[in-house]
Amino acid sequence: MIVTERIEPVAVDVIVTGAWVLTLNARREIYRHGAVAVADGVVVAVGHRADILAGHRAATLIDEPDAIVLPGMTNGHRHLLCCAKGAMPEGGGTLAALRAFIYPSFAALTEDDMHVYARYAAAEMLRYGTTLFEEPGCNHLEAVLEALADTGIRARTGPWTWDQAGSAGRDGLPDWLRLDADAALDRLAEGVATVRKFGNPRLRDAVTIEGVGTCSDALTRGAADLALDLDSLFVLHKSTSEAEVEMELRTFGERPVAHMHSIGALHDRVLLNHMTSLDDRDVAIVRDTGARISQNPTSALKLAKGTTRTGKWKELADAGVPMALGTDAENVSNHQDICRAMQLAALLPRDMHRDPNAVTAEQALEMATLGGATALRMQDEVGSLEPGKQADIVVFDTDDYDLGPLHNPVANLVYGSTGHSVDTVLVGGDVLVRHKRSTRLDESALRARVAEINHRVLREIGIDPSPRWPVL
Ligand SMILES: [Zn+2]
């Protein structure tokens, strides 16, 4: 006689189900009619829906049998110091925008403003499926940490810093912070200490300098050393235009990436933002040093950085360089949608190389998820749906034009989706967005507060955001 022992289902906190569960595990397995079980904020099982439901009893069941389920996405470059979306004067390049609009806007932001901006940015990113972001240097760090902690998002950040002694000299640089290299390094170390003292496990430190001609070699090397000593992440803008490359060639006789390497400031705890002007040697240096990259395609296109001429996205991807996708400050990109960045990351290199295989849909989806987590050195905790990892989960609604009719979830996501398809978002097992609404924040009130701040700042810096067409 065979006695079948009845096995009691295991109690868990949450189960999320979907028609397609993309795990991004080492074999990139996709479960058709799959599910993810979560306990204490951590993924405890991934498998077929029927098996997971039979083996577990969930306090909360998010049962979406038609949905695509994806690991939380990463935004590899999102400033919280930012300016009014849509108000940036049209037609100017990077330097003109920085001088007339961006830096004056930053200087006008109070601690309260930063608190509101941080909540608003997190609300928008979460709404569109971003669960982790890199903030490349903010001001009023403590207010930012408090705001982000309320929202439940994950982030890496520090205080934005420079010493006005780089290849650009003192011309046109933001003057609301005047520090020498030693004081700048103290500010960076204090920033790491502040984030660690704050003690929220979702908020991690970074050593954040500006980097485009604004920092001395002593500061750049010191910041790189600091990130190694403190086991942090060194974040800076680098090789963002041909003008920057020419400036560094004039000053140092080397291109920006080669110069960082020469002074011993490149290693595997460095995240280089933008990187739109590279040559093959730069790619080899990045690969050999283990440095990481964030690509910001909308920002690059809007500011006419030449990303399809002097970018090396295919070469960097082929070299296995960990690459995140970012949106940059919202005044530049006008959106915080990693789905849109993913589409551009797949398509721009194809046109550049006249090769439809230059960057595959799978590579673009990896950049948005596991690649982004790896670029931020968080890949052991997030970036895939596997037992032991944090339960950062995005559920896409497929019952709309973005994703339906659905045949191949990878192709449909990369080419067709926008953040508006995101229905539900969990971070560490907490349901932060459900049916396209924040569960924690009054999003309408937040938008109204941001509009008030923007109007005040635009008045203070003398920018009129009116359209160029006659307004009657
Ligand atoms: Zn930036």
From TrEMBL:
Transmembrane segments: none annotated. The keyword Hydrolase applies. Pfam families: Amidohydro_1. The keyword Hydrolase applies. It comes from the Bacteria. InterPro entries: Amidohydro-rel, Metal-dep_hydrolase_composite, Metal_Hydrolase, MTA/SAH_deaminase. One of its GO terms (molecular function) is atrazine chlorohydrolase activity. This is Atrazine chlorohydrolase. It comes from Nocardia aurantia. The lineage of its organism: Bacteria, Bacillati, Actinomycetota, Actinomycetes, Mycobacteriales.
